[in-house]
Structure formats: structure tokens, C-alpha cells
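Slide 14.
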Amino acid sequence: MKYLSLLALLVISHCAMAEQGLVVEISIEEHAAQSQDVTISVSKIVMGFNESVSLDVEGDYGVTIVSEKSQASKVNLVVSLSDQSNGAPELLGDKSLKLNVGNSANYQISHNDHSYKVTIDTRYGELPAVEEQK
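Slide 15: predicted structure.
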């Protein structure tokens, strides 16, 4: 009886654990060539590994992130950035990154007299529970 109770507890605790996902925080600094103005936009999302997500960053940028888990703690990310501030999205560029989960990376994009510093920060996080559909 004691072993049966332990087995039941193990099964229940395993079912209650949330699935591990990836938290991606993105920060975009925009500098205009003829100005001292700097605009910073920040957003984050929880996504699964081997998944593609699109998000809106403060209404100014559209970002699509494709993740692929390559090894135990490594992830490949493809980040596509577009400027939405003028109404229609304008592609600024794509970047492929290889990161250890828990680390960050940054890169620069230049487009139409503007430069963009993009910082990507990653960590593990729990995916939101998905309700069963009836």
C-alpha cells in the first residue's frame, strides 16, 4: 500500500508539472542619423522550442522569432524585424543567432539613415497551460 501511494504521488506530480519553454526578451534601440533622439522599445514572450511566433513590440516593430533547440542548453533563433511605425511593415532584416539558454546577444541593423541595436535575452520559463478543448 505504501508503494502504491508513492507511485500515485509520483504520477500526479509529473502530470502537474508545466512544460518547459523559452522566454525571449527583445529590446530595440533606434537611432536617427541626424538626431540625438533614441527610441527604446521592449517586449518579451514565452514560446516553445521548435516553434515560430510573431509579436508586436510597442506598436512600432513587428518581430518574428523561430526557435530550434539544438543541444541540451543551446537554442538557434532566427529573428526577423520590421518597422511598422509608418503604417505598412517595412522589413529591416533577419538575423540568425546561436545561444546558450540564459545568455543574451545583440546585433546592429542600419536602414534608411537609422541604426537599430537589437538585444535578445533568453531564459527558461514555464509555458502557459493549454486547456483541453471540448
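Speaker note: The two ends are 35 Å apart (CA to CA).
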